[in-house]
Fold these 2 entries.
Entry 1:
Amino acid sequence: MPRLPQIRPNVLRMAPYVPGEQPGPGERIIKLNTNENPFPPSPRALAAIRSIDPDILRRYPSPTAELFRATAARVHGVSADMILTGNGSDEILSITVRTFLDPGDTLAYPDPTYSLYPVLAESCGIRVVAVPWEPGWQLPVQTLLASGARAIFFANPNAPTGTAVRPAAVRELALAFAGLLLVDEAYVDFADENCLDLVRELPNVMICRTFSKGYSLAGLRFGYAIAAAPLVAEMTKVKDSYNCDAISILAASAALEDQDYARDTWQAVRAERSRLAAELGQRGFDVVPSQANFLLATCPGGLAADLYRSLKAKGVLVRYFAKPGLADKLRITVGTAAQNDALLAALPG
Ligand SMILES: Cc1ncc(COP(=O)(O)O)c(C=O)c1O
């Protein structure tokens, strides 16, 4: 009888990524736990999906999502060969790790941040150095530089804090760093600033974006990197041949074209973000000022785990991280006005 095949030791050792809970279809829940945009996707994206020609499903899609690259190049004012698409920005992060880091290399990132970074690194035998943020959620530039890392990842705005680093500070880090600096802009659509100009200027900066947050298309699975063309060319060798499907390429292209619609949703989320932060502040929460579509709030009395459970029992799902530095806090996605009102009403009086 064959036995279980041997598993790579670093895979056996590593802890898995723990995604936020995803309730089943039809479950009546107010879902404020995984930072989706609460508004529907662009009508133009939905129309593109509805009018799919069956022949494009019969055939393989463009391996490099040329329709999307042309659209993104136009919208962002870069050349098409600076765009690499992926099955969500998670796949872009995975391709990046596999293109730029060898087993035994070091990946550094400010901590706390997106908990997928160490998982991707450890699955490839890459060492991670988690550098605590400096006070006021400033970039720990010197410690990151001293880490011996070959690549630095950081989310801007950051998750789960919602805080953002000014592009001038990111530029200082990039100028002083010999390796790859990946700026994960998953939440940038809700922020005041972005780092696109740095990609145009510096060959070691890559930005990574997604349709899961700003474009209300988390279920579509589509993200992209913007980086110097030679980096994109090497990453293209590493990715799966047809990593984005024909439907997602069409829908993401239509959604990106519809900037006016997307901007309206970002504006509405930003307005609700301010209102929800103020309301939580009045109820004794200490809320970190956010540039993203969620709030990190320290709970009165530090009883975050209890509050998470009591909200869930009332049908409101938020995110709780049982981790050092986060165990007294909840991360709450900004919903529609009605969803935020329901959250506020479910808080203990
Ligand atoms: C900082 C950050 N980067 C990337 C992602 C992944 O996004 P995607 O859905 O595009 O894979 C997330 C998702 O929560 C995130 O928080």
Entry 2:
Amino acid sequence: MTDTLKGKWALILGASSGFGAATARALSAAGMNICGVHLDLRATLPAAKAVIADIEACGSQALFFNTNAADPDRRTKVLDGLANALQGGSEPRVEPGAEPRVHVLMHSLAFGTLLPFIADKPEKAISQAQIEMTMNVMANSLVYWSQDLVRRDLLAPGSRIFSMTSEGSHRVVRNYGAVGAAKAALEAYTRQLALELGPRGILVNTIEAGVTDTPALRKIPGHEEMLAASLRRNPSGRMTTTDDVAATILALSQPSLRFISGSVIFVDGGEDVVG
Ligand SMILES: NC(=O)c1ccc[n+]([C@@H]2O[C@H](COP(=O)([O-])OP(=O)(O)OC[C@H]3O[C@@H](n4cnc5c(N)ncnc54)[C@H](O)[C@@H]3O)[C@@H](O)[C@H]2O)c1
């Protein structure tokens, strides 16, 4: 079944860590080429290099950009590079019969400010700039990348877009106000894109992962208690893993699945429904 993905391209925003990295590995193991965008400094760069090495070990192409996915000029440069690779680049390696388009866009960016709206001192509360940055990276950028891919004719009928949401979209978590708002917006953007891209045959869904032990989660104040609480309440008796999400995106990327769009797909072992 996975053979049908061979030679197709995925564009993964946030490919060096967490869900994005696990999905890059799973899709490349199924024969897909990966264009990855990530933002890493020296300390975390080895993780990005390890993802690239794993993709290439599968015989797939890895085209990675260490750059800010929320910057419009950087987005243009990434898409120029990707368009060139889709045409075969300097060393044509396009599979015979492969569509020179992007089969999967995954938005898995984690870059938000975790501060309360209300604090005793103004400098301890989230600022306008921090709210706008969080919304821009974690939600609005999904729309801009999708728009540019469509304008460049890089999405074909059958292409899929996945965003990553969390229970913070509909439940309050301390210090998570801006990210929660970004998740609510991301879900609304996902539904709107499903409406507007449906006539083009493009399927758009958001994955709601359960609490998962990733570098982004470890930045949330009180994450130890979040992890413990999620382990206690998860009906499946364990935490969600990045591989759970990767396996779901791999399954939902199969060309034979053609009619799931506009959905919030829970990949959490039932964690959300127990509250
Ligand atoms: N970890 C959880 O419990 C959980 C649960 C549900 C949803 N999510 C969501 O899943 C998504 C991914 O989270 P994760 O836990 O895998 O995080 P992570 O920190 O492991 O990975 C984040 C990735 O985003 C990249 N990145 C961040 N800002 C960027 C920018 N401006 N430009 C380019 N790349 C950038 C990083 O380099 C990294 O590759 C996020 O949207 C997060 O909110 C996480």
